[in-house]
Design goal:
This protein has about 400 residues and is an alpha/beta fold. The protein contains 13 helices and 12 strands. It binds pyridoxal-5'-phosphate. Pyridoxal-5'-phosphate binds next to helix 4.
């Protein structure tokens, strides 16, 4: 060893740091290669469970730890990490659907989920049908012999209608199909996706897909997703496809989520509180034709939200800090309103510390019409961690200037 060149010495260095380092934040274990002590150990190690380490793509202590904590957050038993929330959706669909199968997707689902079915799954001979999330009979009618997977979302993206999730899951599972929930909005905090019944009965989704990009990250600087299950056999089907697709996540990103995770619940409830304050203020304005926030009476599916997300201990219930309003004004004025906002920045995503605004054109997004959404121009607001009164002042100045109306 003594006669090696400096480059070799720097790589095969004898110093080993003492092992008893302990601090609030966990170490970041980054690796493609993982060392084995000997050939026999290498041959006996399995990558299919968390009993040992084989290769970075199959996990390191850092990703194993985040997976276990996410299981705790959502009430699941197994978890897979993927590079984005959308990758969580596409991996579930690819893993569980075969040529000739059909997937059902709510018409108000996260748009790229619908696009993935239309443009990718269709290439493999997998059919898709959109259903009305607010009409359980429409779902029941559309469940056919080829339906193997049904996506659910509570509430729907952008228009925020809250479905009867309990009835939907019962309907899907009694048909023999799998119920996969996009649980980004609930985030494991508004309701328990694997324990939907209050009376102690057992009913839960089969799969929870979560865009960790939103609340668990909380910083607007990480893209990641998770796929959580309770059934080991189902997890194994997902894990095999996940491995064969080569879906890994960077450990620096995993560390960022681990760093933010302890404050997820605090941020979620703080953003919920400010969002309701601002939604109530907007509801008073003359040009607001409809408020789309499931915690407000009159918002589509409010009673379903109440049943699932409000408890006797906490009658106010929990909701994510995101809502939409339909404005009875021309699109050009609504665009001007968005442009005039200063604290609310124009951008996609949500769950971070910066408040965001985005106008949406529903006509390009829905296949089954507007459903229970009023006519007008829709604007979605995602509430960050700024002071609520400052945010309301920002809404008021943009509203009065763009629409030449008083702020009440
Ligand atoms: C953002 C989002 C996703 C996708 O997450 P990415 O990490 O941006 O791919 C999926 N579903 C919902 C409901 C979302 O809001």
């Amino acid at each position: 060893m003594k006669n090696h060149q400096i480059s070799t010495h720097l790589i095969h260095h004898p110093y080993q740091a003492p092992q008893d380092f302990a601090a609030p934040q966990l170490p970041v274990h980054k690796a493609s290669t993982v060392f084995f002590p000997d050939v026999a150990t290498m041959r006996s190690r399995r990558w299919l469970d968390k009993s040992g380490y084989t290769y970075g793509l199959h996990g390191t202590p850092t990703s194993f730890t985040l997976e276990e904590r996410l299981c705790t957050l959502e009430g699941g038993k197994q978890c897979l990490l993927v590079p984005s929330g959308l990758a969580a959706i596409s991996t579930v669909s690819l893993a569980l659907l075969n040529h000739g199968d059909e997937v059902l997707i709510p018409d108000n689902a996260y748009g790229p989920n619908k696009d993935f079915a239309e443009h990718e799954l269709s290439r493999y001979g997998i059919r898709h049908t959109f259903f009305n999330p607010m009409d359980i009979e429409d779902l029941r009618r559309k469940l056919g012999p080829a339906t193997k997977l049904v996506w659910l979302e509570a509430p729907g993206s952008v228009t925020m209608e809250f479905p009867d999730l309990v009835a939907q899951v019962q309907c899907v599972q009694s048909h023999g199909a799998l119920a996969a929930l996009d649980n980004t909005w609930g985030a494991g905090l508004a309701f328990l996706p694997f324990d939907l019944l209050r009376d102690g009965g057992s009913l839960g989704v089969d799969i929870s897909a979560h865009a960790l990009t939103k609340y668990p990250s909380g910083g607007g600087d990480v893209l990641m997703g998770s796929i959580t299950t309770r059934d080991p056999a189902l997890h194994m089907r997902l894990k095999l496809t996940h491995m064969r697709l080569g879906l890994g996540v960077g450990m620096n990103d995993v560390e960022l989520v681990l760093r933010s995770l302890p404050s997820t619940a605090l941020r979620y409830h703080a953003q919920d509180k400010t969002a309701r304050q601002l939604a109530a203020a907007l509801q008073r304005q003359s040009l607001v034709a409809q408020l789309l926030h499931p915690a407000f009476a009159g918002s589509p599916g409010h009673s379903h939200w109440q049943q699932l997300c409000a408890t006797q201990d906490s009658p106010a219930g929990a909701a994510a800090g995101i809502f939409s309003v339909v404005l009875d004004a021309p699109q050009s004025q609504v665009d001007d309103f968005c442009n005039r906002l200063q604290l609310f920045r124009l951008g996609y995503s949500w769950g971070g510390h910066v408040s965001l605004v985005m106008p949406y054109g529903l006509d390009e997004m829905r296949n089954l019409g507007r459903g229970q959404v009023a006519a007008g121009c829709l604007v979605r607001l995602c509430i960050g961690l700024e002071d609520g009164a400052d945010l309301e002042q920002d809404l008021a100045q943009a509203y009065t200037q763009a629409f030449a109306q008083d702020w009440r």
